[in-house]
TrEMBL record:
Name of the featured protein: Protein kinase domain-containing protein
Biological source species: Didymodactylos carnosus
Entries under SMART domains matching the protein: S_TKc
Taxonomic path: Eukaryota, Metazoa, Spiralia, Gnathifera, Rotifera
Pfam families (alphabetical): Pkinase (PF00069)
GO terms for biological process, alphabetical: mitotic DNA damage checkpoint signaling
Record-level GO cellular component terms: cytoplasm; nucleus
Length: 306
């Protein structure tokens, strides 16, 4: 890419230190994707024409306001790295190579692929990975198809984009994930209310029900995230991969009004939940409370892949 491109499009320059790793000079090779906060490129060693999956990935912040989200992603991934079971799940979480001190970019170690066909072993891995996050008291909040990728050889499913994740204060001794966030103070299943962020489209059913009812005069919309919130988003993402109707409807819901978005998503998910194939999955999720029976859930999900 030309110098002109760097200057006009990016907040970095080819001569910046980030383009030099272990004394090797890198250039941006290919745009891999973009999201709400980023534009993402593969980096390749100058004069090296090997496939770019062997090289690092640069996630560049597109707006100053998002830099704190990048620093949060770095902190959450560091917290996970220090957790006791990390080595068991490290294959399923994108690994950081380097982060800009003010959060202008994050470099990741490896180039991943979008999921073409979700396989049952990926589903099992992702469920285990979310159970691990629950054990570590981390709620991702943005588990959705765009944030689920696979390793280049498609061996491992990978959860990316921890920018909206937070360390929860859910009381582990008394947890009922199904309680709605607008319940009164008796509800010990969820975190204290915090401003919402992350996915709306793939949000937990009770989350959507709560959000759509929030008066429109409220400037800050808050929610008490349930301990197993991410698992609900994962189940919705699995159904998305399995069901063409969802694929062709949910992504077209585009409105700036969060309550309206939640309302329209709720209509679509309500319809999907009537489908015999998926009914059992959602019922099982909602009937489990304190102890999520992961094995039982995996067995029901397996039926979708037979
Ligand atoms: N390591 C990676 N390898 C390949 N593509 C990636 C990688 N990380 C991110 N992407 C692509 O860039 C998109 C945006 O990255 P993401 O971390 O989700 O940031 P955002 O906060 O902007 O959503 C992803 O949906 C994906 O398509
Ligand atoms: Mg994303």
């Amino acid at each position: 890419m030309s110098y002109k491109f760097y200057e006009s499009q990016l907040i970095i320059h080819p001569t910046d230190k980030i383009m030099i790793i272990n004394n090797d000079e890198y250039i941006l090779k290919r745009k891999l994707g973009q999201g709400l906060t980023s534009i993402v490129y593969s980096m390749i060693k100058k004069n090296d024409n090997r496939d770019d999956f062997k090289f690092p990935v640069l996630k560049l912040c597109t707006n100053k306001a998002f830099q704190k989200i990048y620093l949060n992603e770095k902190n959450i991934l560091s917290t996970l790295k220090e957790s006791s079971n990390y080595t068991k799940f490290s294959h399923h979480i994108a690994e950081i190579e380097n982060v800009h001190v003010d959060g202008k970019y994050i470099q990741f170690k490896e180039c991943l692929n979008p999921i073409k066909t979700l396989k049952i072993n990926h589903v099992y891995d992702l469920i285990d990975c979310i159970a691990y996050l629950v054990d570590t008291n981390i709620i991702h909040r943005d588990v959705r198809p765009e944030n689920i990728m696979v390793s280049y050889d498609e061996k491992y499913a990978k959860l990316i984009d921890f920018g909206f994740a937070f360390v929860s204060n859910v009381d582990d001794n008394d947890n009922d994930h199904t309680a709605a966030a607008d319940d009164d103070d008796d509800d010990k299943s969820s975190t204290t209310a915090i401003p919402i962020a992350g996915t709306i489209h793939f949000g937990l059913y009770n989350f959507l029900k709560t959000v759509r009812m929030i008066p429109r005069i409220f400037l800050v919309i808050e929610y008490k995230y349930e301990k197993w919130y991410d698992l609900a988003c994962l189940l919705n993402s699995i159904v998305y991969h399995h069901n063409d109707h969802i694929k062709s409807t949910i992504v077209y819901i585009k409105t700036d009004l969060i309550q309206e978005k939640a309302n329209r998503c709720l209509d679509i998910w309500a319809e999907i939940r009537k489908n015999e194939q998926y009914k059992k999955i959602f019922e099982m999720f909602e009937s489990m409370n304190k102890n999520m029976d992961i094995i039982k859930l995996k067995n029901v999900l397996k039926l979708l892949f037979e």
